[in-house]
Design brief:
Shape: globular
Strand content: 15-25%
Low-confidence stretches: 1-19
Number of helices: 12
Number of strands: 18
Structural class: alpha/beta
Distance between the termini: 54 Å
């Protein structure tokens, strides 16, 4: 975007041509998608995606959903030449966002794509765990192959997650390895050994967003959840250091019966720290446990989500209760695939089932196997571990069985 300065105007902080000329987002035979500004009496000026061409109908559902968010909600971050609606989505405009549109067009005709692939790099969550004690962790060459295979499947979000990925020595190399024209890269951290040098290396490697979990504003409660003294102070320090280095930061938490009442205080903390997004994920039960989040809890989360995002003050709020409930439906095994530290492939980090191992076969074959089960071909508004139909499969896991368990063994065709 290179319009002359006297020919541009700002909409939500994004510079676009003042003459109303749209910005081209995507142009392929049969489809053109543009970004332009629009007005209404209530919201004033806002950004809007428009489509034209013979393939417009295939693209319209996702554009309608994105436009609804652009119209009604504040973005997580605005740059001079792009807007980032959420830390969990690619910038608009940008090459990874084009891949999002391609993926959604495929999904519209029934060809589901693992838009997000989350990868565990290590079982370490503390510097006290010496290297060499995790011999079965995926080696760097295998991880790079998995990344390549994910990108070839159409993935546009790679997330390094679970435990503390930043304790894996090769994390910077792996972040840099991801082709940023094809996908954004996010990473979580506990804040273990996080330093200014770490933050600058993450920025240099091209990290899209850093996710830092905080489960309570009471340091003792957070430390207890992490089972590590000083974990709260390390997490807060990591957020401050990352922001000082110019990284986009999302402060994350898992909503559960133990902290539902604390969500407003956690949002206040996120605001005081200055993060770009406060992300709330529904806590997931383990195998054999009952669902943790109730419909009433979801109503509370959604009310908070709508209220916060309608205000121009403070960071944006992300809630998977909305994203996977009202917006896209459950993503596990439909738009999401997870790879454990030793290579087992799952629909997401939470279900106690595996569908193959990336050490033994390509990601594409595992994805096709996962998609072959009728359960994952159904539209759901609840994640598997909150869905009564899926929990029937969980109940069939033999007592004492090693997890994750092979899904085929509990599935009755």
């Amino acid at each position: 975007m290179t319009p002359e300065k006297n020919n541009i105007e700002e909409i939500n902080g994004v510079e676009i041509p003042a003459n109303g000329k749209p910005i081209e987002i995507l142009s392929v035979p049969g489809l053109q998608v543009n970004l332009q500004h629009a007005k209404d009496a209530l919201r004033g000026d806002f950004l809007e995606l428009t489509a034209s061409g013979t393939l417009k109908a295939a693209c319209s559902p996702i554009l309608k959903k994105i436009n609804s968010r652009l119209r009604e909600e504040k973005p997580a971050l605005v740059r001079e030449d792009r807007v980032i609606a959420s830390a969990w989505l690619p910038p608009i405009p940008g090459p990874a966002f084009k891949r999002l549109l391609y993926a959604e067009m495929q999904i519209a005709i029934g060809k589901y794509i693992p838009e997000t692939v989350s990868i565990e790099l290590t079982r370490q969550n503390s510097a006290r765990y010496p290297r060499g004690t995790n011999a079965d962790e995926l080696d760097t060459d295998t991880l790079k192959r998995v990344i390549d295979e994910a990108l070839d499947l159409g993935t546009f979000i790679i997330t390094f997650t679970e435990n503390d990925p930043l304790l894996r020595d090769e994390v910077f190399e792996l972040i840099e390895y991801v082709d940023k024209k094809r996908a954004i890269v996010n990473s979580s951290t506990w804040g273990t050994d996080f330093s200014k040098e770490t933050a600058l290396r993450l920025k240099e490697a091209g990290l899209h967003a850093l996710m830092v979990g905080i489960y309570s504003t009471d340091p003792e409660k957070h430390d207890a959840a992490r089972k590590a003294a000083g974990a709260y102070e390390r997490a807060v320090s990591a957020i401050k250091t990352a922001l000082d280095a110019g990284l986009m930061v999302a402060m994350t938490t898992h909503a559960s019966p133990s902290n539902m009442q604390e969500l407003p205080a956690l949002y206040t903390l996120a605001s005081e720290l200055g993060v770009q997004e406060f992300s709330v994920w529904e806590a997931m039960p383990k195998a054999g446990e009952k669902p943790l989040i109730t419909d009433k809890d979801r109503e509370t989360i959604l009310e908070m989500y709508e209220r916060i995002n309608a205000s121009s003050e403070g960071p944006r709020m992300f809630a998977n209760s909305y994203f996977e409930g009202q917006m896209l439906g459950a993503m596990a095994g439909r738009r999401w695939m997870h790879v454990t530290a030793d290579g087992d492939a799952k629909p997401s980090p939470y279900p106690p089932f595996k569908f193959g191992n990336v050490k033994e076969e390509p990601l594409k074959d595992i994805w096709q196997r996962m998609r072959s089960y009728p359960y994952f071909q159904k539209q759901k508004n609840l994640g598997p571990m909150h869905d009564p139909e899926f929990l029937e499969f969980v109940d069939r896991i033999p007592a004492g069985a090693k997890l994750p368990y092979e899904f085929e063994k509990v599935y009755r065709r």
